[in-house]
Design brief:
Layout: H1 2-15, H2 28-50, H3 60-66, H4 70-82, H5 94-130, H6 139-145, H7 147-158
Helix pairs in contact: 3-4, 6-7
Length: about 170
């Protein structure tokens, strides 16, 4: 029963996820994985709904009418009526719980790294927008904004490689 409670809690959390968020649409691979996950959860919900009630009784009388070997159906009916198997319960092992907890912690660490990368990228985009190259930008401004290119140009001037990037050798 603890397992079905965990499923209910997970389903409630999944209802709170905003699946239309741009985060899930930015990357084709992620988008396909998210849609696959959503299909899997929809299938799991449908199966949970389908099998939520106990199965109905077996109609052995109609089976006896439609099968040639009535003795076979009678022996199945006898075995079914005398059998009372114990209910199966699933126990989540401690090792599996630890492994899943470790995966969650790794994902959280990856999320923090991704958030940091997003912040760095947003700062870089803001910097590049403020230092956009236009006709009014001087060469000294360009050297300040792009120091690596300025260094390369200075080396080419010193080595007298005037047309290095424009002519074939």
């Amino acid at each position: 029963m603890a397992f079905s409670g965990a499923i209910r809690r997970t389903a409630q959390r999944l209802n709170k996820v905003e699946w239309s968020s741009p985060v899930f649409k930015g990357d084709n691979e992620l988008s396909s994985m998210v849609s696959g996950f959503r299909a899997w959860t929809a299938q799991a919900d449908a199966m949970a709904e389908k099998y939520s009630a106990a199965p109905g009784p077996i109609d052995f009388a109609s089976a006896k009418k439609s099968v040639r070997d009535v003795a076979l159906v009678e022996s199945l009916e006898k075995m079914y009526s005398s059998s009372s198997p114990p209910a199966l319960t699933y126990e989540w092992s401690k090792e599996d719980q630890d492994a899943k907890s470790q995966l969650i912690e790794d994902a959280k660490a990856g999320l923090a790294f991704t958030q940091e990368m997003i912040e760095d990228t947003e700062r870089e985009i803001a910097y590049l927008r403020t230092h956009r190259t236009t006709r009014e930008v001087s060469t000294s401004d360009m050297k300040e904004v792009y120091p690596d290119i300025a260094e390369e140009v200075e080396k080419e001037i010193e080595n007298r490689e005037w047309f290095k990037d424009t002519l074939n050798k």
